[in-house]
Amino acid sequence: MKLAFTTLGCPEWNLDTIISKAVEFDYDGVDFRGYLGEMEIYKLPEFSSDIETTKRKFNEADLEIPCFSSSIRLFTTSDSEVENFKEELRQYGRLCQEFNTPYIRVFGGGIGDIPRQEAIQIVENNLAQLLAIAEQFQVTLILETHDDWTRCENVLDVLNLTQSKYLQVLWDVHHPYRTKGEEPEKTWDKLGDRIQYTHWKDSYPKEGTPRGYQLCLMGDGDIPLKRIFDLLDEKGYEGYYTLEWEKVWCPEIEEPEVAIPQYVQYMKQLESEGE
């Protein structure tokens, strides 16, 4: 079992702290989603002019960067946004080559009032342009089960737009179950052969909150995490189990010093229970 956490969960940690804590807490990798307030990390010295130092630090710590989590959305009707996303993809493609990173996370995006069939046609056009860049860099785009593309059927609609092997799935095991009532077995049945990466979080319903639920430490909510873990184990899943602790968006949740080590303890307990 390979464990990672996204930097969304530790917005105030610098690079040395991220690496030292990852080693201390027994992680295998770090998934970059922003760094010290900058979401477009490729603009920072650590990932441009000083990139060799960053690479050396990760190598010495024996840590991987399994994924760069971008802000790219497949659905947009703005030509200028498409061009911006293409440039963002080129930048992350460059970083993937530097760090031997196989995946770049992308979103489907919100479609608003546009009919879904029309939205799918727009996605098809944008996706073709993005995949041409992904193929150039030999990096795989992983579409997260998120926003208006959370249901497995909607994700499948996107997968069916192309034969390219450079489009696969990131199963956020929380969103389909919590926001759509989709059972994990159904998600796997529809998407399992394309799921290359997973995000993990827990929550419980809470009225009066913007999302209708409250994020919490692993095991304190009611997401069927053990069922999902056992399902992945049974199906032979070999990808990363990545904690997405949304501290940036939800500052009220526990500090990373609490949540990030707790995740390892929880996941290793699940693993031992399954042996």
From TrEMBL:
Residues 20-268 form the Xylose isomerase-like TIM barrel domain. It holds the Pfam family AP_endonuc_2. Gene3D superfamilies: Divalent-metal-dependent TIM barrel enzymes (3.20.20.150). This is Xylose isomerase-like TIM barrel domain-containing protein. It comes from Lederbergia ruris.
